[in-house]
Amino acid sequence: MGDKGFFTDTTVCIGCKACEVACKEWNQLPDDGFHFTGMSYDNTGHLGASTWRHVAFVERPAPLQQQDSGLGNFSWLLHSDVCKHCERAGCLEACPTGAIVRTEFGSVYVQPDVCNGCGYCVSACPFGVIDRRADDGRAWKCTLCYDRLKDDQTPACAKACPTSSIQFGDLAELRERAQERVEKLHEGGVTDAYLYGESAASQPGTAGLHAFFLLVDKPEVYNLPPDPVVPTAKSKEAWRSMGLAGLGLAALAVGAALFGRAGGGA
Amino acid sequence: MSFLFPADSSDRAQTRDGRNVDEKLGALQGEGAHQDIRRARIDSAFPLPEAGRGEKTAPTLQGGATPDYYGQPLLKETVWTWMIPAYFFVGGLAGASSAFGGAVQLFGGGKLKRLERQLRWVGAAGDMASAALLIADLGRPARFLNMLRVFRPTSPMNVGTWILSGSGACNTVSALLASQERGPLKRIGDAASLGAGVLGVPLAGYTAVLLSNTAVPVWQHARRSLPLLFTASSVSCAGALMQLLPGHSPAERRAVRLFAAAGMLAELAAGVLLEREAHLASGSGLPAATDPVAKPLHHGASGALWKAAKVLTVGALALTVMPQRRRTTRFTAGALGLAAGLCTRFAIFHAGKKSARDPQASFQAQRAGMGAAELAEAPRSFRLLVLR
Fold first, then answer.
1. Residue A253's domain spans which residues?
2. A95: closest CA of chain B, how far (Å)
3. CA A34: distance to chain centroid?
4. Cβ under 8 Å to B: A residues 177-216
5. Residue B302, exposed/middle/buried by CB under 10 A (0-12, 13-18, 19+)?
6. Least enclosed by CB within 10 Å: which of A164, A207, B323, B328?
7. Does A123 share its domain with A135?
8. Which of B22, B23, B35 to mutate to test the interface with A (most CBs of A within 10 A)?
């Protein structure tokens, strides 16, 4: 088995949305309605309970290395977003029912037969990936095609990607390949290229992503957080504060009882 | 039903579940095949945020703010309804009442009998109402018992469910046996009341830990002061409710008055701390009203609720500490105190909703070193305790 994951190289994405379609088809997810957002060619908007791949279209008048459209500073960035299957996952640690588990492939999986739709994971994900479907009542997200992995198949999105922007494989091997790709881009003049979340060192807040990305601009441009952190990593301070407040409450309750007893006469 | 939805019409299949799978040709066995689609119009199940409705059609470029993606939210807004902040209010009230009840039983010297009995009943009724609110808000209410199939210390919601279950059991026993004067039944009732008192202490404030253990900027960055605020507000609400209830002896009134006044004072102080903590998080150096993290506490519905909570608490505190109080004064103080507690919970809840919608709140706070960088050492990875 070993840890499997995605390496998404955004520099070769052509925005065909084959990944979105393949994901919907294979997983038999319902459509989301047919919207026109006005945001470039992105009419999907964001990941959601029944949208497990989402292609972002960053269309703007900003210069980019090695991109020349002949229209001045105009440039494109395309980015196929997906659940990151974090090494330390906010959703998994927040889940009160144990419905969200780590699979034998290292992915994060929501068991639909256990989830009771409490919605806590929705607020705990630092990437805003997982969502609860109002009419279904449960939380849903990318499964890394758990059913396909069990049969030794590549996930539908990676299988459908015509430019190998989405690469699937053993995590260790993907990291090496990604590193080589970054070096190659640097040699070719795209010195802005870097890997987002490929290791615990580059993203300590999640201890590294199992679905990581090659980007050429700030993470915010792609709607990715610059320094995400699993909320549980910070909860110790909140528990400590609650303990302090609890001591205060206990002392006050005892004090008030003694105070009442001492006076009043009745 | 087949005459209503003829299987040969693929258009019908599409309006039915949005999958467009002809069931004669394909079996529904995919990972998402069992998502229940009950809406007649699928569109309404997938609302795009405001920025996605054509208000902003160009990405925000550098300059001033950090860039973002067409102003789209980074985070998902909480899916909880009004029932969750209502639970924060009722559960906190029950917790602080139980803690007060336990203390009165141990240290009241038998002079505060009526108050003790009332506190037991408030604790029991509050726990029941809490459970009802929590279950009703679940996406799958019938599966509420799944909360208790594991013990998971990393999930404040799981820990809280165990606390509430224990407290509910203790409070029910203690309330049912509250009228026992002597014998083993009285001893069982007293023991249960003490148990509820001990569990009531965390019940009064754990909901703040639950909120701060999320990615929502205003909740996460207020994690040191939020538990103080929620615990204090629970105390002041319990004190306020006791001022509303009749039939207290002078000794009982003394105890209630001190309890309520201290809670209200602490609530005001914790509110100041919280505003400060949220404001410092983004490192923007902007005034609080325009700071991306603290903004929801100063604008819109959440800002108005937050302000109302403060005003109501001041009013309740003034009427609580006023000398020579008549019944109507006590009653008004109690009503204002309860209203303040409700406003506090709903203000924090709506501030979080707003905060999740604003990508700049996350981006700027993280750029200012309030993301993972805030933790001195790399987060420790620990095995989850999952009991099956």
1. 232-266
2. 6
3. 24
4. 200, 203-207
5. buried
6. B323
7. yes
8. B35
Average pLDDT of the residues of chain A: 93
User: Are A207 and A246 contained in the same domain?
Assistant: no
Is A123 found in the same domain as A238? no
Test B43 with A254 for CB contact under 8 angstroms. no
Helices assigned H by DSSP within B2-69: 10-17
Domains: count for chain A: 2
Rounded distance between C-alpha atoms, residue B28 and residue B34, angstroms? 8
Size of interface A-B (CB pairs under 8 A): 429
Written as one letter, the residue type at B270 is: A
Q: What is the Cα B100 distance to its own chain's centre?
A: 21
Query: Predicted confidence band at A264 (pLDDT cuts at 50, 70, 90)?
Result: low
The enclosing domain of A66 has a CATH number of 3.30.70.20
The number of residues in chain A equals: 266
In this complex, do B155 and A96 lie within 8 Å of one another by their Cβ atoms? yes
Inter-residue contact A59 to B72 (CB < 8 Å): no
For residue A168, the surrounding DSSP H or E stretch is strand A166-170
Nearest alpha carbon to residue B242 among B144, B48, B104, B41? B104
Interhelix angle B83-107/B327-357, nearest 10 degrees: 140
Asked whether this complex has an ipTM greater than 0.90, the answer is yes
Question: pLDDT class for A72, splitting at 50, 70, 90?
Answer: confident
Look at residue B167 and tell me whether its pLDDT is greater than 60: yes
Packing angle between helix B250-281 and helix A235-262, nearest 10 degrees? 160
- Is the whole model's pTM more than 0.95, yes or no? no
Q: Do B79 and A119 make contact, defined as CB atoms within 8 angstroms?
A: yes
A residues 127-156 near B, CB within 8 Å? 127-140, 143, 145-147
Q: Do A238 and B214 touch (CB under 8 A)?
A: no
Please give, rounded to a whole number of angstroms, the shortest distance from the CA of B43 to a CA of chain A.
4
Using one digit for the tens of pLDDT, what is the confidence trace for A10-59? 999 999 999 999 999 999 999 887 778 888 899 998 999 999 999 999 98
- Say which residue, A174 or B47, is predicted with more confidence: A174
Instruction: Decide if A162 touches B, using CB distance below 8 A.
Output: no
Number of other CB atoms surrounding residue A103 within 10 Å: 17
